[in-house]
Amino acid sequence: MKSGRQTAKLLKVIAVLTGAVGTANLIGGIWLASLGGSPFYAAAGLTMLASAFLLWKRRAAALHLFAALVLATMAWAWVEIGVDWWPLVPRGDLIFLFGLLLILPWTVRRLAPAGGWVRNAGPLAVALAIAGIFGLAALMRDVHNLDGTLPGPRSAIAPEPNAMPDDDWQAYARSWRGDKFSPLTQLTPANVGKLEVAWQLRTGDLKRSGDPGETTYEMTPIKVDDTVYLCTPHNRVIAVDAETGRERWRFDPLIRTSARNMQHLTCRGLSYWDSSRAGASAADCPRRIFLATNDSRLIALDPRTGAPCRSFGRAGTVSLLPGQPHYNGGWYQVTSAPLVAHGLVVTGGAVYDNISTDVPSGVIRAYDALTGRLVWNFDPGNPDSTAPLGAGRHYTPSSPNSWSTPAADEALGLIYLPMGMGAVDQWGGRRPATTERFATSVLALDIVTGRPRWVFQTVHHDLWDMDVPAQPALVDLDLPGRGRVPALVQSTKTGNLFVLDRRNGKPLFPVEERPVPGGAAPGDRLSPTQPFSAISLMPAPARESDMWGATMLDQLYCRIRFKSLDYKGPFTPPSLRGTLVFPGNFGVMDWGGISIDPIRQVAFAHPNYVAFVDRLIPRAEMEDHGVRGPAGGSDRRGSDEQGYNPNTGAPFAVDMNPFLSFAGLPCQSPPWGYVAGIDLRSGRKVWEHKNGTIRDETFLPIPFKLGVPSLGGPMSTAGGLTFMAAAIDNYLRAYDTRTGKVLWRARLPAGGQATPMSYRSRASGRQFVIVVAGGHGSLGTKLGDHVIAYALPRQP
User: CB of 729 within 8 A of CB of 697?
Assistant: First the structure.
């Protein structure tokens, strides 16, 4: 009797839970339907409520009604998504679990003591079996992978004057071509599985109290002769033996950091210069390591000792602050390696995003690599005058900046800069013509004079933080009917890959201006069209059926949010109600960019698909909430890659956040991250595969391969391999460049949001691959201070 009473209580508990979920679905479903969304949730909620009532009354009809719900859910899922496992899960998870509870013998006995289990529970069991078969078919079928094989070697690399030895890696992307390609062939698809840790280094440089939230370790080392040089987030420089990793010297510029005034803290790389190759003669330091710092200094170091080169600037240092009257203790930083070419050190800088309309200039400056003398300055707000700025004069504030790494073609006498936006991203009603010309573009400057030679804009009147984030990649392409053409390949946050003739900026593959949504915010304007490249990894427009979540209710929440936002496809402008921005400002491709194999003439990319929500906040609304705008003083609260951004001086602040479910998962169905192989001769995407697992994003180390976002970059080798560690699970992976298949992976002790590099040690002849594992503050990956080198085992 006691057991029977307990079973009856459990049955009522199931009835209550079913009714609660049904009520939530009914209320949310009515809300969704009123927004023009799917009516299914309201119908499902009503069915669950009816089933709950029958369960409470201990009627066997509840089982039959629930069987109909299971079959209807499966049919609805089939229509919306086809046979696709992860989008299927939240559509049927709760319904399937409740169905399993209802066919248990003890449940059926309490509902219908007469008639038997088969008669009463049989229809529901059959429905669940059909749903299970459907789910199993979806689990076994991968609809997101594209299989294919890129071509093998198709051309030789033309020799360059003063080319570095094959075993070195002397610039951020090995050379200033920006292709992230090593000509070494020791590592191959056949032996890469034997890679092992050769040495490890702990830098000792970890995030401190007082550092900004986005403290990251995004560094790619350089290697010259028998020494590897690396920098840390606090701009320390460390030199180590290339074979053993043993430290040789360390330099600390003792930078000051500020969580209040700095948006980022990182050092992506160092640069190397040999004066003898430039035909120059240095009084000291004939070879130099150049470091640009987060506190706006350019420093030259002796690569043998780490001592400052005293003939450069003032005792080895040039300040980047002259001419910047709007500097505010961290609003101007250099986070990327300076370019060194033609005897010049060229650097732009990162300007604090969305803090104010009055911020430092985005000026690009070239300094004599010997003396530190300013040779020219390109001010995007004053592009016709590149002569060094005179004493007491100032650069144009708030002009477009170049915060990422440039590229150079010294034979053509050009440097190529990826350009960002001027002050404030999401509202542009007062932008000058110079900003409209140079923002969010690829800019080619004459290397001798700094004068603009050509500019190609990737987004017009950018309101979505679509800065051109990655170093341009230079490659010579053999194109049908045109012969060998010097090309520039620019990856972008929008997902477009623009392939341009690097002599004049003209597209080598079609670029079409297409109409885009209207509806500018008050006082702003829009471009009626935007450029779309024939080579593109841009995602298809988001749909309500693409919404996801941890459960059915979580997915319903995302659907309601989706239908409540302004969204008419790519380039829907920011609005007061809130706009879905897809791709979001995280970018389809960010600063890590792509790698190019110039022998195969192919590119390795790692697209990401994560949406953001941007909402404009009127200044009056801010003041109502106690936030002081320009009329009542300056709002100096910090901004970040997400959250509240004050935009002081503009009529609107902006709230930017990833588009997440109630449970904190992306509202879009996975995959959120891929790797892709592109044939640059044909412009065709040949293969694409989901990349990465959720192992490090869940409480349990479950390695579900959903395809996760990545931040960092790939590195390719002539041996037919590409290495990348950028995904938000902590792995370094080696891929077959031709097919994208993962051939090897190594577990990292922290997040690997950096780009690997490769060199050959002159001591042992082994080819090494180095990656930094230090994590990323904004992504939430594990922080660390690890530098790890991998190589094949030593031969006995």
Answer: yes
Other beta carbons within 10 Å of 702: 10
Is 655 labeled as catalytic in the residue annotation? no
What is the pTM (predicted TM-score) of this model? 0.95
Q: Measured in whole angstroms, how far is the alpha carbon of residue 407 from the centre of its chain?
A: 20
Highest-pLDDT range among 213-217, 660-664, 714-718: 714-718
Alpha-carbon distance 357 to 651, whole Å? 10
Please, are residues 729 and 708 in contact by the beta-carbon 8 Å criterion? yes
Contact 426, 574 (CB under 8 A): yes
From 84, 168, 465, 635, active-site residue: 465
pLDDT one-digit tens code per residue, 110-144: 786 666 788 888 999 999 999 999 999 999 998 99
Cα-based distances in Å from 574 to 352, 562, 653, 654, 676: 20, 15, 11, 9, 30
Pairing of strands 264-265, 214-215: parallel
d(CA 290, CA 345): 8
CA angle 525, 527, 530 (to 5 degrees): 155
Query: What is the rounded radius of gyration, in angstroms, for the C-alpha atoms of the chain?
Result: 29
Tokens of 388: 């060094």
Strands 643-645 and 602-605: unpaired
367 has a pLDDT exceeding 90: yes
Residue 390 · residue 415 · CB < 8 Å? no
Q: How far is CA 579 from the centre of its chain?
A: 20
Q: How far apart are CA 235 and CA 264, in angstroms?
A: 13
Tell whether the torsion through CA atoms of 701, 707, 712 and 714 is positive or negative.
positive
**pLDDT tens per residue, range 381-433:** 999 999 999 888 999 999 999 999 999 999 999 999 999 999 899 999 999 99
Rounded CA separation 538/551 (Å): 28
Length of the chain counted residue by residue: 796
Please give the Cα distance from 556 to 45 (Å, whole number). 11
Residue 284 CA to residue 271 CA, distance in Å, equals 18
pLDDT in tens, 549-562: 999 999 999 999 99
